[in-house]
Amino acid sequence: MAKQRMINGKPTVYATQPITLHVKQYDVDRGDPNDPGGCAAARCIKRELRARAAFVHKGRVYIFPIDNDVCLVYQTPKGLWGELIAYDRGGRFMPGEFRIPPVSPSNRPGMRSKRKADSRTGPHHRNKTKRPRHVTAHVRHTFGANR
């Protein structure tokens, strides 16, 4: 049996139902750029869902409900992701409605890729060099990554 992932001492549980956030100007005015726990979206989650804590990252949203001793994990949608990038780089976070979907089973850790096993090692890929990974500068780090 695989070891269950813990965040801030709480076991993670992948959410099964989407949620809808209504980020208001109030949240934006009091939010902090580059702070996954204090940005406008995290403040909105704490306000609307009455959560103990919330962390909004580029790929995942982590919510710690008051009445539960777990960490709920959601996927960050593209629209919210774009707002986070602009906000972290000194731009404005535009208030609006965001639908936060649960993480699809194929994007959860431990799931195998459906790619062919030889897709990178076949005869047409032998001499190709691997492209360097692009890292978006001046935005929040991923959860648990070193700065």
Can you lay out the helices and strands and say which pair or pack?
Blueprint: E1 6-7, E2 10-14, E3 19-23, H1 25-30, H2 40-49, E4 51-56, E5 60-65, E6 71-75, H3 78-88, E7 96-100
Throw out a few tags for this protein:
147 residues; 18% helix; alpha+beta; five-stranded mixed β-sheet
Characterise this structure.
The protein is of the alpha+beta class and 147 residues long. The protein has a domain at 10-103. Helix content is 18%, strand content 23%. It contains three helices and seven strands. It has helices spanning 25-30, 40-49, 78-88, and strands at residues 6-7, 10-14, 19-23, 51-56, 60-65, 71-75, 96-100. A five-stranded mixed β-sheet has the order 1-2-6-5-4. A two-stranded antiparallel sheet has the order 3-7. The longest helix is centred in the middle third of the chain and has 11 residues, at 78-88. The chain is globular. The two termini are 31 Å apart. The model has no long low-confidence stretch (mean pLDDT 83).
Taken in chain order, the helices and strands follow as EEEHHEEEHE
Radius of gyration, Cα only, in angstroms? 18 Å
- Beta-strand content estimate: 15-25%
What's the total number of strands? Answer: 7
Major sheet details:
5 strands, mixed
The end-to-end span amounts to 31 Å
Major sheet: arrangement of strands? 1-2-6-5-4
Total count of helical runs of at least 4 residues: 3
Shape: globular
